[in-house]
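worker-03 picked up job from queue 'complexes'. Input manifest follows; three sequence lines, order preserved.
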Amino acid sequence: MEFFEIFIAGVFINNILLAQFLGNCPFLGTSKKMETAVGMAMAVIFVLVMAGMITWIVDTYLLKALDVEYLRTVSFILVIASLVQFVEMFLKKSIPGLYAGLGIFLPLITTNCAVMGACLLNISKEYSFLSALVSSFSYAVGFGLALILFAGVRERINLARVPKPLQDTSIGLVTAGIIALTFMSFKGMV
Amino acid sequence: MISALFFMLGIGAVCGIVLSLSSKVFYVYEDPRIALVENNLAAANCGGCGYAGCSSAAEAVVTGLAPPSVCVISGKEGVEEVAKIMGVDVGAAESLLSYNMCEGGNRADDKYYYMGISSCKAMTAAFGGKRVCGVGCLGFGDCVKACQFDAVKLGPNGYPVVDDDKCVGCGACQQACPKDIIKVTTLSEQLMKFNQEQDALAPCAQTCPAEINIPRYINQLREGKYKEAVQTIRMRNPLPLSCGRVCPHPCEDECRRGIEDEAVSINQLKRFVSDFEMNSGSRIPIKCAPDTGKKSGCSRWWPCRSFLCIFPTANRTPGVYL
Amino acid sequence: MAQSLAKEFTKGLWAEIPPFRLVLGLCPVLAVTKTVENGIGMGVATTFVLVFANLLISLLRNVIPSKVRIACYIVIIATFVTIVELVMQAYTYELFLKLGIFIPLIVVNCIVLGRAEAFASKNGPALSVADGLGIGIGFTLSLAALGAVREILGAGTITIWGGNPVFEMGPAFHPFAFMVEAPGAFVALGLMLAIMNLIGSK
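worker-03 finished. Artifact:
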């Protein structure tokens, strides 16, 4: 039951993009077309689940055991960067179809605040391994949901008569704000 | 302190070892020619070749599925380089250009006032567009948005104007237009095409056996652009001086103005502008298609034949058949 | 030399000011600008990391092999971020608590890595420091501006480092709480970006 709560909280209430502002740069970049948005969402789910697991293991069995918690930032980012590169090589060789679908988004995720932020959030909430896994998955699904919703709206906005100073990023941000407003209504659900 | 040092060294070593091992284990052999070919393609990822981006086109060339001239926008040198890498002969290719047939644009009345998405494709879904004429340009510029090379602009009259120097013939505008007004063809295809009943042409252009774009050159004359008018006529008919004097002008029989009062003097206007070129003292240069190494000649009856010598042709080749 | 130093420094203050002109590093901008104080604190921390990371990367640019360069830059930046984190935890504990996880997230801030990749890896140490300083101060100014807008509209006052409010809107003003919440950040940033575009294009 606790996992269900964590899942709902991660997707709707504490949506990593619209409520916690993590992962904005690829959000604005890949949401111009629906295909890139879907590809990016898949890639984030793929990477975030694995990164969540591995960073939890590193934190519990290495950082806390050796009492070097101040090295958390450095070690996490190293682990995440290496993981993404490894996954890219693995996909290219073993599952070329999947690589063709989401391969180009993988380098984009390496220095993405969403992945790093989600891992740090799991640690700060002191989750167990399974809770951390569910939480990472729910953050990734929330990110994907927000991204796909936004891409749908943005494709329509591109065809509308937007005044020159507001074009492109500005109107995108204002729209994201309105979508964030709708997600705010989920507060207090759990 | 020591534990921190060892920890960092440990993590660094593990990451390094895992990555270098996996780069050997998961090594994917990529034909080195693919990268070389890709360097010589235009790198615009326009999709004009029919492949999804330059890397896919390079792969197709290397695996033999596509000829070295697959890239429609790379210059002659690029195609030669690719042919050299693949070790094959360069095929001969003519450059594609985009041609716009609509001359009316804003001159047509609107059936209704449109307040929807600013897209030609969207407007076409509503009773075929807002223009009364039904086949004309709707003016929202889907072709302008589709062009990645900045070659199409919406002209002052509300139909697209193509910049021939920037156009590379990728075909994006043709796919974007819901009214099929823009066509991307080579010059030869354009010349060899006979007007069909269902083409959206003015009656004069439909009737003209040389298929000259009559509304366009008369418009250009009206605006004082004599040189452009000569070019427009010369696109379909290289003998405007002769035809301006002897052509029986079936176009004037079809001219709609004739219903009101008198037909527009299409033939006299053609004579005027070709005389202008003759008296200007210099020949206006025309663009030529690349040399195919074959000869051409005139091979049909027409009154102007009495002014020309007919020379024998070896085989039918692209050219104007009068 | 002095002229190019000045040029690199000032370009970060207007022509390439993040995040308005150089649309990078949006995550902290939206999150920490609930108040001016948080914004300035984050800006100073980022400036510190930018300056020192640029300096070290620029000094080591000929030594680091090209294949592992991104990984090396990330480790160098992460080291300085950890230093900043520990200093803030010791000396400015309330600010540290308010900024929360966004301090370690400076390491993945696109501005820092972007400047290291685009500038520090190709130019000398003095120019890199000037560039880092300029962009960092520009970033701080933008954060302060956005924070001011959000705080004035959202709470009606600007308070810096506890104590009395520096600026008050007066009793007749009803604060617009929407601005302090998440959606307000997006909308405020979008509108400020539009205003910058308007000013810039003129």
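worker-03 released lock.
Residues 34-66 of chain A form the longest helix (33 residues).
Residues 50 and 81 of chain A are 12 Å apart (CA to CA).
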